[in-house]
Write a structure and sequence with these properties.
It is a single chain. By secondary structure, the protein is mainly α. The chain is 76% helix and 2% strand. Helix 1 packs parallel to helix 9. It is globular, with a radius of gyration of 20 Å. Keywords: Membrane, Transmembrane, Transmembrane helix.
Length: 233
Amino acid sequence: MPSWLVQFGPYFDLIAGCSMLIPTGMAWSRRAYLTGGLRPLAILPGFLFASYWLMQLGIYLWHYNIAIAHLNTVVESLILIQVYHDNAKKLKQRQVIRWLMFAFACFALADSFFIEGFDQINSYTNLFESILVSVLILAYFEESVFIHHKDNLFKIPLFIASIGVLLYLAGTVMLYLFSEYLIKINDLHTYRAFYSFNSFLFFVLAMLLTRAFYLVKPPQPKILEQKWGARVA
């Protein structure tokens, strides 16, 4: 890995972390028109921005931020699961997702306090998050293709956002699964490469969330046809 990329890495992390301000502002500007899963999704960029700075604060003040990383993973996961819960149309789907959310929360607590502990990243919880949310996204994709087969899927806000989330989770689980091993063997260059790639996917997520919230438009007034053919809003 080039040395200049190692030196530039922290600055790219900063750019990626601050990029979440863009979809946060876009979501706020569209807040009156958000429905279904877009409402909890609007919380995500602001949370990710805050969690980035909490992680930096932990390093600066205590030289430790693993407990913060554990909490961030759990809250991030619950927000994402809530997105697809609120977007589900059928009662049975919502009930299943609620049970999955409960199972995830129980596993996350067990992982943090008993399995992996607060001395290392909660990689098992992150893996569980990635699998669970990815399954929910793929189920949503299948449903979207069936329902909106005549529409342009890339004009659907949640569809665009889901692509970003799927890419981001793929990068995050790779980072978390291999980070402890790379640190133990002191391969900091490869670790930095993984981290920079994850920051890039974080930036991509920010841009796709921005695009998703930008696509949210005010509902169009219905056009009523009167008997004599005139149209009124």
